[in-house]
Amino acid sequence: MWQAEVRIDLDAIRDNVALMRAGTTAEVMAVVKGDGYGHGMLPSARAALAGGASWLGVATLDEGLALRRAGIDVPVLAWLHSPGMPLHEGVAARIDLSASTVSLVGELVEAARRAERTARVHLKLDTGLARAGATPAEWPAVLEAAAKAQADGDIDVVGVWSHFVYADAPGHETIDQQLATFADGLAVAERFGISPRYRHIANSAATLTRPDSHYDLVRPGIAVYGLSPIAKETIAGETFGLRPAMTARARVAQTKRVPAGQGVSYGHTYYTQRETTLALVPLGYADGVPRAASNAGPVQLGGRRYRVAGRVCMDQIVLDVGDDQVAAGDVATLFGPGDDGGPTADDWAEVVGTINYEIVTRFGSTRVPRVYDGTAWVPA
After folding, report:
1. What is the rounded distance in angstroms from the CA atom of residue 46 to the CA atom of residue 83?
2. Claim to verify: residue 197 and residue 312 sit in the same structural domain
3. Quick check: is 166 catalytic?
4. Could you tell me if residue 191 is inside a domain?
5. Quick one: which of 111, 163, 169, 285 is 20 to 30 A from 156 by CA?
6. Does residue 235 fall inside a structural domain?
7. Catalytic one among 256, 266, 306, 372?
8. Do 216 and 330 have their domain in common?
9. Do 276 and 351 fall into the same domain?
10. Per-residue buried b or exposed e for 268-287, using 16+ beta carbons within 10 Å of the residue's own CB
11. 266 annotated active-site
12. First to last CA, the chain
């Protein structure tokens, strides 16, 4: 008998990727960083590949190496590297690595020589996000260093890439500005003799709404897991045919009748208005439930929606269910695909004042097991 669980529909991940693959002429890189956005990196990766992804994207070298250790042999790009990382391990494992500074190009040259293998490199241009990436002013120096390293046989510039600021608002002026800057950066690269096989800038939002940004490769992340990347106020209710893959739920641990005026949970920030039944649900902020959802988080129980009553605790939340018939063992769903009118990750994001990305990446702690459904993944 389970107490709390996070269920992952791998067929939904497969089908979400297939949907995006059908909508572009570019190859698809499914981003599985952050333990597959909380869904489990390895099962999610295999489901995405079953849906037609031909690349996988991760943030860190360790994530890329974990994919290789699991026997996944498709192209993998890892892009976030602090100085002094063991990049030679990535080169030896045939992981593509990103570079956006002259010093990092130098580290990749050293890594390639140590691994005795040419490093596959994607050069990143900062087109306006102001995170990683060479600014347009720095770009020529990075290209010059990369061109020399490529001529020496130490690196192969496989890709040139960038990332959008505001693609979640289709039509925002920054999108066209960044595309123009990216096109200029590609032209400068050509002048240095760099003609990458893969040019990529499209994230989930651009994959779904800006086909003019697809180039040779698109990099959907949150959309792989069935959640819309588009700001709700921009395209209200638009799901693009995606299906959320994660459901978080738990069995009621205890119910009790309490009188009117009973304070509930720490600090008594909630008081019952009349005699009522309280239901204790064994999920808390140690499991991924945002503490900011106190007195606000929506939960479905017995076909009805309730709000968290009082503060979210480390291990549990309380629901005020009135006179409804609820018993220990009944299933309370915090969020899922919403097919039956139940709450979704978007609903939780709205009450907390965050984005659906943060809601799903919170879940999957060691004491709340992930349970996988569907046929898209067969264990290696």
Report:
1. 31
2. no
3. no
4. yes
5. 163
6. no
7. 266
8. no
9. yes
10. eebebeeebbbbbbbbbbeb
11. yes
12. 27
CATH number of the domain at 271, please: 2.40.37.10
Catalytic site residue from 33, 37, 285, 306: 33
Question: Of the candidates 22, 21, 41, 23, which has an alpha carbon nearest to the alpha carbon of residue 31?
Answer: 41
Same domain, yes or no: 251 and 105: no
Whether residues 128 and 271 share a domain: the answer is: no
Q: How far apart are the C-alpha atoms of 169 and 153, rounded to whole Å? A: 42
Question: Does 184 fall in a domain?
Answer: yes
Exposed, middle or buried by CB within 10 Å (0-12, 13-18, 19+), for 164? buried
Residues paired with residue 217 on neighbouring β-strands, in sequence order:
27
Amino acid at 260: A
Domain assignment of residue 260, given as a range: 246-373
In a domain? residue 192: yes
